[in-house]
Write a structure and sequence with these properties.
Mean pLDDT of chain B: 93
Number of strands of chain A: 11
Distance between the termini of chain A: 35 Å
Shape of chain B: globular
Mean pLDDT of chain A: 91
Low-confidence stretches of chain A: none
Oligomer: heterodimer
Structural class of chain A: mainly beta
Number of helices of chain A: 0
Largest sheet of chain B: 6 strands, mixed
Order of helices and strands of chain A: EEEEEEEEEEE
Radius of gyration of chain A: 13 Å
Largest interface: A-B, 29 and 25 residues
Strand content of chain A: over 45%
Helix content of chain B: under 10%
Structural class of chain B: mainly beta
Distance between the termini of chain B: 41 Å
Number of helices of chain B: 0
Largest sheet of chain A: 7 strands, mixed
Number of strands of chain B: 12
Helix content of chain A: under 10%
Shape of chain A: globular
Amino acid sequence: EADIYQTPRYLVIGTGKKITLECSQTMGHDKMYWYQQDPGMELHLIHYSYGVNSTEKGDLSSESTVSRIRTEHFPLTLESARPSHTSQYLCASSPGGGTGNIQYFGAGTRLSVL
Amino acid sequence: AQSVTQPDIHITVSEGASLELRCNYSYGATPYLFWYVQSPGQGLQLLLKYFSGDTLVQGIKGFEAEFKRSQSSFNLRKPSVHWSDAAEYFCAVGAVGGKLIFGQGTTLQVKP
Protein backbone atom coordinates (compact mmCIF):
# COMPACT_ATOMS: atom_id res chain seq x y z
CA GLU A 1 0.00 0.00 0.00
CA ALA A 2 1.38 3.38 -1.01
CA ASP A 3 1.88 6.05 1.63
CA ILE A 4 0.89 9.21 -0.13
CA TYR A 5 -1.51 11.63 1.47
CA GLN A 6 -3.54 14.51 0.15
CA THR A 7 -5.36 17.14 2.18
CA PRO A 8 -7.99 18.33 2.17
CA ARG A 9 -10.08 15.60 0.55
CA TYR A 10 -12.85 18.06 -0.29
CA LEU A 11 -12.74 21.85 -0.54
CA VAL A 12 -15.48 24.32 -1.39
CA ILE A 13 -14.22 27.86 -1.72
CA GLY A 14 -15.27 31.21 -3.15
CA THR A 15 -13.86 32.88 -6.22
CA GLY A 16 -10.67 34.85 -5.69
CA LYS A 17 -9.42 32.94 -2.68
CA LYS A 18 -5.89 31.59 -2.47
CA ILE A 19 -5.71 27.86 -1.83
CA THR A 20 -3.00 25.29 -1.30
CA LEU A 21 -3.53 21.60 -1.84
CA GLU A 22 -1.18 19.48 0.19
CA CYS A 23 0.55 16.29 -0.92
CA SER A 24 3.00 14.29 1.14
CA GLN A 25 4.64 10.92 0.71
CA THR A 26 6.67 8.86 3.14
CA MET A 27 8.32 6.54 0.64
CA GLY A 28 11.32 8.74 -0.13
CA HIS A 29 10.37 8.95 -3.79
CA ASP A 30 12.21 11.54 -5.86
CA LYS A 31 9.55 11.93 -8.52
CA MET A 32 6.20 13.54 -7.80
CA TYR A 33 3.31 14.52 -10.05
CA TRP A 34 0.06 16.50 -10.02
CA TYR A 35 -2.83 15.51 -12.26
CA GLN A 36 -6.13 17.23 -12.94
CA GLN A 37 -9.14 15.04 -13.58
CA ASP A 38 -12.57 16.22 -14.64
CA PRO A 39 -15.54 13.85 -14.12
CA GLY A 40 -15.51 10.99 -16.61
CA MET A 41 -12.32 12.20 -18.20
CA GLU A 42 -8.72 11.08 -18.33
CA LEU A 43 -6.02 12.39 -16.06
CA HIS A 44 -3.97 15.29 -17.36
CA LEU A 45 -0.50 15.99 -16.00
CA ILE A 46 -0.22 19.61 -14.84
CA HIS A 47 3.04 19.61 -12.85
CA TYR A 48 5.88 17.28 -12.00
CA SER A 49 9.10 17.26 -10.04
CA TYR A 50 12.18 15.11 -10.27
CA GLY A 51 13.52 16.13 -6.88
CA VAL A 52 14.07 18.97 -4.45
CA ASN A 53 14.05 22.39 -6.13
CA SER A 54 12.99 20.82 -9.44
CA THR A 55 9.56 21.60 -10.88
CA GLU A 56 8.23 21.45 -14.41
CA LYS A 57 4.92 22.20 -16.11
CA GLY A 58 3.02 19.26 -17.48
CA ASP A 59 1.15 18.66 -20.68
CA LEU A 60 -1.98 20.54 -19.63
CA SER A 61 -1.61 24.25 -19.03
CA SER A 62 -2.58 25.22 -15.52
CA GLU A 63 -2.71 28.49 -13.59
CA SER A 64 -1.55 26.68 -10.49
CA THR A 65 2.01 26.65 -9.17
CA VAL A 66 3.98 24.07 -7.22
CA SER A 67 7.05 23.93 -5.04
CA ARG A 68 9.40 21.16 -3.90
CA ILE A 69 11.42 22.28 -0.93
CA ARG A 70 11.43 18.89 0.76
CA THR A 71 11.50 15.46 -0.85
CA GLU A 72 8.32 14.34 0.85
CA HIS A 73 6.20 17.43 0.21
CA PHE A 74 4.79 18.75 -3.09
CA PRO A 75 2.07 21.36 -2.52
CA LEU A 76 -0.01 22.92 -5.29
CA THR A 77 -1.18 26.53 -5.00
CA LEU A 78 -3.85 28.56 -6.75
CA GLU A 79 -3.33 32.27 -6.09
CA SER A 80 -6.86 33.24 -7.09
CA ALA A 81 -9.36 30.43 -7.46
CA ARG A 82 -11.96 30.59 -10.24
CA PRO A 83 -14.93 28.35 -11.08
CA SER A 84 -12.94 26.96 -14.03
CA HIS A 85 -10.54 25.44 -11.46
CA THR A 86 -13.30 23.17 -10.18
CA SER A 87 -11.96 19.65 -10.64
CA GLN A 88 -10.32 16.74 -8.89
CA TYR A 89 -6.59 17.01 -8.27
CA LEU A 90 -4.54 13.85 -7.86
CA CYS A 91 -1.00 13.66 -6.56
CA ALA A 92 1.34 10.77 -7.34
CA SER A 93 4.89 9.74 -6.63
CA SER A 94 7.35 7.37 -8.23
CA PRO A 95 10.69 5.91 -7.18
CA GLY A 96 12.29 6.69 -10.53
CA GLY A 97 11.96 8.63 -13.75
CA GLY A 98 12.13 5.77 -16.18
CA THR A 99 9.26 4.91 -18.45
CA GLY A 100 8.58 1.73 -16.52
CA ASN A 101 8.29 3.22 -13.09
CA ILE A 102 5.05 2.74 -11.23
CA GLN A 103 3.27 5.80 -9.94
CA TYR A 104 1.49 5.63 -6.60
CA PHE A 105 -1.52 7.87 -6.14
CA GLY A 106 -3.10 9.72 -3.28
CA ALA A 107 -6.86 9.75 -2.74
CA GLY A 108 -7.24 13.15 -4.39
CA THR A 109 -8.67 16.54 -3.52
CA ARG A 110 -12.03 17.44 -4.98
CA LEU A 111 -12.14 21.23 -5.39
CA SER A 112 -15.28 23.25 -6.00
CA VAL A 113 -14.94 26.98 -6.63
CA LEU A 114 -18.17 28.94 -6.33
CA ALA B 1 3.08 10.99 -30.19
CA GLN B 2 2.15 8.47 -27.57
CA SER B 3 -1.54 7.95 -26.92
CA VAL B 4 -3.92 5.53 -25.29
CA THR B 5 -7.44 4.77 -26.44
CA GLN B 6 -10.10 3.02 -24.43
CA PRO B 7 -12.93 2.52 -26.91
CA ASP B 8 -15.60 1.69 -24.34
CA ILE B 9 -16.64 4.62 -22.17
CA HIS B 10 -19.16 2.62 -20.18
CA ILE B 11 -19.69 -1.13 -19.77
CA THR B 12 -22.36 -2.99 -17.83
CA VAL B 13 -21.97 -6.65 -16.94
CA SER B 14 -23.90 -8.99 -14.68
CA GLU B 15 -22.29 -10.22 -11.51
CA GLY B 16 -20.51 -13.50 -12.20
CA ALA B 17 -20.09 -12.78 -15.90
CA SER B 18 -16.73 -12.42 -17.57
CA LEU B 19 -15.25 -9.04 -18.35
CA GLU B 20 -12.94 -7.63 -20.98
CA LEU B 21 -11.93 -3.97 -21.12
CA ARG B 22 -10.17 -2.81 -24.24
CA CYS B 23 -7.07 -0.67 -24.49
CA ASN B 24 -5.11 0.35 -27.56
CA TYR B 25 -1.90 2.30 -27.45
CA SER B 26 0.35 4.20 -29.79
CA TYR B 27 4.03 4.15 -28.89
CA GLY B 28 7.17 4.06 -30.96
CA ALA B 29 9.14 1.58 -28.90
CA THR B 30 8.40 -1.33 -26.60
CA PRO B 31 5.77 0.07 -24.28
CA TYR B 32 5.45 -0.14 -20.54
CA LEU B 33 1.74 -0.62 -19.92
CA PHE B 34 -0.41 -0.27 -16.84
CA TRP B 35 -3.97 -0.75 -15.71
CA TYR B 36 -5.25 1.29 -12.79
CA VAL B 37 -8.62 1.18 -11.02
CA GLN B 38 -10.33 4.14 -9.39
CA SER B 39 -13.20 3.58 -6.97
CA PRO B 40 -15.61 6.47 -6.42
CA GLY B 41 -13.99 9.31 -4.50
CA GLN B 42 -10.62 7.56 -4.39
CA GLY B 43 -7.25 7.78 -6.05
CA LEU B 44 -5.89 5.29 -8.53
CA GLN B 45 -4.72 1.83 -7.53
CA LEU B 46 -2.40 -0.21 -9.72
CA LEU B 47 -4.00 -3.45 -10.92
CA LEU B 48 -1.14 -4.77 -13.04
CA LYS B 49 1.71 -3.79 -15.30
CA TYR B 50 3.53 -5.10 -18.34
CA PHE B 51 7.22 -4.38 -18.79
CA SER B 52 8.55 -7.31 -20.81
CA GLY B 53 8.53 -11.09 -21.00
CA ASP B 54 5.35 -13.09 -20.70
CA THR B 55 2.60 -11.30 -22.58
CA LEU B 56 -0.08 -12.48 -20.14
CA VAL B 57 0.29 -10.69 -16.84
CA GLN B 58 -1.55 -11.35 -13.62
CA GLY B 59 -2.66 -8.63 -11.28
CA ILE B 60 -4.49 -8.10 -8.06
CA LYS B 61 -8.16 -8.86 -7.43
CA GLY B 62 -8.20 -11.67 -10.02
CA PHE B 63 -7.47 -9.45 -13.03
CA GLU B 64 -5.19 -10.30 -15.90
CA ALA B 65 -4.18 -8.53 -19.09
CA GLU B 66 -2.68 -9.66 -22.36
CA PHE B 67 -0.19 -7.64 -24.36
CA LYS B 68 -0.55 -8.08 -28.12
CA ARG B 69 2.10 -6.18 -30.01
CA SER B 70 0.58 -6.91 -33.43
CA GLN B 71 -2.68 -5.30 -32.38
CA SER B 72 -1.15 -2.60 -30.15
CA SER B 73 -3.52 -3.75 -27.46
CA PHE B 74 -3.42 -4.45 -23.74
CA ASN B 75 -6.88 -5.69 -22.81
CA LEU B 76 -7.90 -6.30 -19.22
CA ARG B 77 -9.89 -9.41 -18.33
CA LYS B 78 -11.56 -11.04 -15.37
CA PRO B 79 -13.34 -14.42 -15.53
CA SER B 80 -16.05 -13.61 -13.01
CA VAL B 81 -16.97 -10.09 -11.98
CA HIS B 82 -17.97 -9.19 -8.43
CA TRP B 83 -20.17 -6.26 -7.46
CA SER B 84 -17.17 -4.66 -5.76
CA ASP B 85 -15.43 -4.42 -9.15
CA ALA B 86 -17.70 -1.54 -10.14
CA ALA B 87 -15.30 1.36 -10.67
CA GLU B 88 -13.47 3.32 -13.32
CA TYR B 89 -10.59 1.62 -15.08
CA PHE B 90 -7.70 3.43 -16.71
CA CYS B 91 -5.13 2.08 -19.11
CA ALA B 92 -1.82 3.95 -19.29
CA VAL B 93 1.47 3.85 -21.15
CA GLY B 94 4.77 4.92 -19.64
CA ALA B 95 6.43 7.88 -21.30
CA VAL B 96 9.76 9.64 -21.09
CA GLY B 97 10.69 10.96 -17.69
CA GLY B 98 8.48 8.56 -15.81
CA LYS B 99 5.29 10.22 -16.97
CA LEU B 100 2.11 8.27 -17.63
CA ILE B 101 -0.26 8.86 -20.52
CA PHE B 102 -3.76 7.78 -19.63
CA GLY B 103 -6.73 6.70 -21.66
CA GLN B 104 -10.11 8.29 -21.08
CA GLY B 105 -11.19 5.50 -18.78
CA THR B 106 -13.95 2.89 -18.83
CA THR B 107 -16.69 2.97 -16.24
CA LEU B 108 -17.75 -0.52 -15.19
CA GLN B 109 -21.22 -1.06 -13.80
CA VAL B 110 -22.09 -4.45 -12.30
CA LYS B 111 -25.71 -5.64 -12.30
CA PRO B 112 -26.81 -7.92 -9.47
